[in-house]
Specification:
10-stranded mixed sheet, 7% helix
C-alpha cells in the first residue's frame, strides 16, 4: 500500500515526532487498512506538552503502538484504551480512536476547514465542503469492556463507543447564536455489557442539537440488539457476546442518515433519520430538539475504542467513577480497560 522505506526516511526528518522508536514493526495497520483519510488520537501525552497525542498525515502509513493501536495475529485492527488516561479537552473519557480527515494527507488544509469536513445537502454553503454526506462501514468485535464502576447505575458504565458522527464545535457560531456549532453527536454506536451478564447490548444514540447547558440536550438511545443503556437485564440470546462480530454502516445521503446493523444469528436492523429537522428516528416530531436539526453544522466520522467508563467521580451523567490507576499494565490486568478490533473499516462517498 505504501513504500515503508520512504515513510521511515520521512520519520527521521521529523525531529518533533516522539514516536520514532515505536514504529519498527513488521506488519503495520496501514498494511491492511486504508489510513489515508484518518487521524489517530491516543490516550497518551508522550511529549509531556499537556495535550493528548495525535498521529496524522503520512505518519499514519507507518505508525503502530503495541498497547493502543496495532494488528493482531489475524491482522485485525485493534484499539485498546484504559479507563484512566489523558483525554481530549471536551471529554472526560479516554479514547484510542480515529478521526476522519477528508483532506487526506494534505496537512496544509486545517483540521476544521470546510475542505476537511462534510456537511448536509441543506447547508447553505454545502459546495465549500470536502463532501456532502459520506459512508462509514465497520465490522467489529468488542473483546473487552471495563469491569468496575463506583456508579454502575449510571448509563455509560461498562460501555464503549465503536463508531460515531461528530459535529464540529465552533465558538464563533455559538456566540453569534446561529443555533449550530455546539459540537454534538448525531450518532454514537455503543456496546454495553454488565460484568455478570452473558451478552451485551448494541444500541445507538442521537444527541439533541442544543447548547451544552440546555437541560434538554440529552442522548436518546435506540436499540439494535439487546437493550438500551437504561435496562439492567441480561440480554441473553438477543444480545451480542464479547468477541462476537457485528457490522454497522452509517450512510449520510443528502440530509438523511441511513443506518444498517448486521450480525450472524441476529436480525438485520435499520434506521433512518433526517438530520435537517427535529423528526426522530421513530418518525415523531421531537419538540425539544433543534427544529433545524444539524442543518448548519459540519461533520466527521470517528471509529475505534472510545471508553465510556470514566474515572471521573461526581454527580454528572458521565461521571461513572470507574476504576483505573493510569498504569496500563496494571489496569489491563484488573480489567479496567476496553478492547475493540475491526476486520473491516472503510470510508467512502
Amino acid at each position: 500500500m505504501f513504500n515503508k522505506l520512504f515513510c521511515l526516511s520521512l520519520l527521521v526528518g521529523l525531529s518533533s515526532n516522539a514516536w520514532s522508536t515505536e514504529t519498527h514493526v513488521d506488519v503495520l495497520p496501514a498494511d491492511q487498512f486504508d489510513m489515508s483519510n484518518w487521524k489517530l488520537t491516543l490516550p497518551l501525552d508522550k511529549d509531556k506538552n499537556g495535550k493528548i497525542d495525535e498521529i496524522e498525515g503520512v505518519a499514519m502509513y507507518y505508525f503502530s503502538h503495541p498497547d493502543y493501536f496495532f494488528l493482531d495475529e489475524n491482522k485485525q485492527l485493534v484499539f485498546q484504551v484504559p479507563n484512566k488516561a489523558i483525554t481530549t479537552s471536551g471529554s472526560s473519557n479516554a479514547r484510542s480512536e480515529l478521526r476522519q480527515m477528508v483532506r487526506g494527507t494534505d496537512t496544509g488544509i486545517s483540521v476544521k476547514s470546510p475542505k476537511n469536513n462534510f456537511s448536509l445537502a441543506v447547508h447553505p454553503e454545502a459546495k465549500t465542503f470536502g463532501a456532502i454526506g459520506g459512508k462509514l462501514d465497520g465490522t467489529v468485535k468488542v473483546e473487552h469492556v471495563s469491569l468496575h464502576a463506583k456508579h454502575p447505575e449510571k448509563y455509560p458504565a461498562f460501555s464503549v463507543v465503536v463508531g460515531q458522527v461528530h459535529a464540529n464545535k465552533d465558538p464563533a457560531m455559538i456566540e453569534a447564536k446561529t443555533g449550530f456549532g455546539y459540537g454534538n453527536e448525531p450518532i454514537k454506536i455503543f456496546y454495553k455489557k454488565w460484568p455478570h451478564h452473558k451478552t451485551g447490548s448494541v444500541f445507538w444514540t442521537y444527541e439533541r442539537n442544543l447548547a451544552e447547558k440546555d437541560p434538554n440536550r440529552v442522548d436518546i438511545a435506540y436499540p439494535v440488539w439487546g437493550y438500551t443503556w437504561e435496562n439492567t437485564k441480561d440480554p441473553q440470546s438477543s444480545g451480542v457476546k464479547l468477541g462476537e462480530e457485528f457490522s454497522y454502516r452509517i450512510n449520510i445521503i443528502g440530509n438523511v442518515m441511513h443506518l444498517y446493523f448486521t450480525a450472524p444469528n441476529h436480525k438485520t436492523v435499520s434506521y433512518k433519520i433526517d438530520l435537517s429537522n427535529n423528526v426522530d428516528a421513530n418518525g415523531k416530531v421531537d419538540e425539544k430538539d433543534n427544529s433545524h436539526g444539524y442543518s448548519g453544522d459540519s461533520f466527521y466520522y470517528k471509529a475505534g475504542a472510545y471508553g465510556q467508563c470514566s474515572v471521573k467521580d461526581g454527580e454528572g451523567f458521565w461521571s461513572t467513577g470507574c476504576a483505573g490507576t493510569g498504569d496500563f499494565v496494571v489496569d489491563k490486568a484488573n480489567g479496567d480497560y476496553n478492547r475493540v478490533s475491526f476486520s473491516k473499516l472503510q470510508l467512502s462517498k
